Amino acid sequence: MSEQNKVNSSSEVQVRREKLANMQAQGRDPFMVNTSDRDTFAKDITDNFDALDGKTVTVAGRIKSKRGKGKVMFMDLWDVSGKIQIFAKFDDLGEEVYTDLKKWDVGDIAEVQGFVFRTQMGEPSIHATGIKMLAKSLLPLPEKFHGLKDPDLRYRQRYVDMIMNPEVMETFKKRTRIVSEIRRYLDDAGYFEVETPVLSTIAGGANARPFITHHNTLDLDMYLRIATELYLKRLIVGGMEKVYEIGRLFRNEGMDVKHNPEFTTIELYEAYTDLRGMMDRTEQIVNRCCMAANGTDEIIYQEEKISLKLPFARMTMMDAVKKYSGVDFSTFMGDTEKAKEVAKELNLEVKPTDTWGNILNTAFEEFVEENLVQPTFITEYPIEVSPLTKRLESNPLLVDRFELFVTRRELANAYTELNDPNDQRSRFEHQMMLREAGDDEANEIDEDFLTALNYGMAPTGGMGMGIDRLVMLLTDSASIRDVIIFPTMKPIEEGKRANRAPKAEVVEEKEEVIDFSKVEIEPLFEEFVDFETFSKSDFRAVKVLACEAVPKSKKLLKFTLNDGTDKERVILSGIHAYYEPEELVGKTLVAITNLPPRAMMGTESNGMLLSAVHSEEGEEKLNLLMVSNKIPAGAKLY
């Protein structure tokens, strides 16, 4: 906001406060009104005009526009159902009420009584015969909320976003209908909805980095749950047979258009069925939710037509990799050395601990995922990436698992659940080996869960689905932040402690010790470049105003930069494997600003950000060059 706008805003706030003070002095304090006699919603009138024409109704909502002059006024009043036009006339309301009404502001909340009619322009309206203020708006609404410079403000002030943008309200109405439809379908199918602990002493059920907190009374470090799986399967052991939970999970990982640290999932488990049963359940849930939200099972997502008609396509992971990479992993089943040779030919990044199954999964992620636009079940996963899943009887290297992909991203994950306690223990032990080797996302051994399995768990199918991603799909929302009402946001001012949670007492992390003896660098160029050519490159300090992942790309980040000019600069950089967008906002970077524009993924990139690249034991490392925030935007580097 410019300095002038700040002054205007401050001045308007003062005027609004003075209006409130005058009303209170006259004994008409709107904040002392506790209820409304509303009997009709805006949508009731527009949908049933003929039935309500000429009848007296009472509505309530926020005034979002006022227009007119003299003794006639029109207002747009919005409630949760939509908009209705109010026609107010001096002769009907009287001098005192009408004069007071003229002093009201856009944003005030009002109750209006009057009769339904249609204006000469044909718009259903209410001819006001009585009106009163229910709450005074002391802050002015923005004139063009989406045009604000701060791209995060809509998420930080969701309440204003919902006031100004009806489509945002509609998204969250659809979310409610989607969640209700999931519950309706599962309840009708005989499932029990349950609630399991959010706090646990073991972070199990998924490969993810947990949040750690401390229980003061018990003097015990605990984790916020990363999955509900292990508790729900204990209930299958206990005999509930069909259970589900809709709830929040917490993972201390990156943030981008598909990930938020806290998110909502549905996990369900059913005894005496398997993966095929879970496919049927999953298809039904997605299809029914789409119909509940949109009235059709054919939708548009980010300009692509998506059909959610039943049944969805099915393909094994090996068949999918063969189709899109040309490599048939079934010809060297279980041969890790051969898989590593293939990985090298395919330019896949491989860790020393990776086996045949890990490399198959990596090939899938690199070559297949970007092609899975229409809903597709991918089945028969390698056992290395599925520690809680039952092996295929026909091939012990693979497990009975599917993931449902739509629009190039995973939507649901399901298993024929592992119920052999001995097999489960050996897989937990393998996960612990990975954990001790430095993988802090690997599972810990849950002895109580193993005890439960030893009592016997019936053959069971289980499925988990990200509700946020489902809502994204069914509301054509590009970012997970568009479907979470209050997404996690970095504090605006780092220095202020107000409204920020105190830091948990955790073990202080030691500064990483880098063994530079393992660093490999490219040879220096032997060919000289003349000074005149070099001097034409314009190196500038730039400030990161915003950073986001580019939709449909796993590598690109889109930077909105202040380069010291009046115009914002956009640069795309393929560094998402090394950085999450949230952590780069506010940083000062170095860019070459006079490179010709280049189109990337439909966006024009104007320049290049500088990074330092080296290798360690064959693995590429990258560090984005960041300089002191004391350096102003646009400062030239020599």
Task: Please explain how this structure is put together.
The protein is built from 17 helices and 30 strands. Strand 4 and strand 5 (124-135) form a beta hairpin. By secondary structure, it is an alpha+beta fold. The protein starts with a helix and ends in an 11-residue tail after the last strand. It is 28% helix and 29% strand. The strands form seven sheets. Strands 6, 10, 11, 14, 15, 16, 17, 18 and 19 form a nine-stranded mixed β-sheet that branches. Strands 21, 22, 23, 24, 27 and 30 form a six-stranded antiparallel β-sheet that branches.
Secondary-structure topology with pairs:
Layout: H1 3-25, H2 42-47, H3 49-52, E1 56-69, E2 72-79, E3 82-89, H4 90-93, H5 95-102, E4 109-118, E5 124-135, H6 153-156, H7 158-164, H8 166-188, E6 192-193, E7 199-200, E8 212-215, E9 220-224, H9 229-238, E10 242-250, E11 262-271, H10 275-294, E12 298-301, E13 304-307, E14 313-316, H11 317-325, H12 336-345, H13 356-367, E15 376-382, E16 391-392, E17 395-406, E18 409-416, H14 421-436, H15 447-454, E19 460-466, H16 467-475, E20 519-520, H17 531-535, E21 539-549, E22 557-562, E23 569-573, E24 588-592, E25 598-600, E26 603-605, E27 608-609, E28 611-616, E29 619-624, E30 626-627
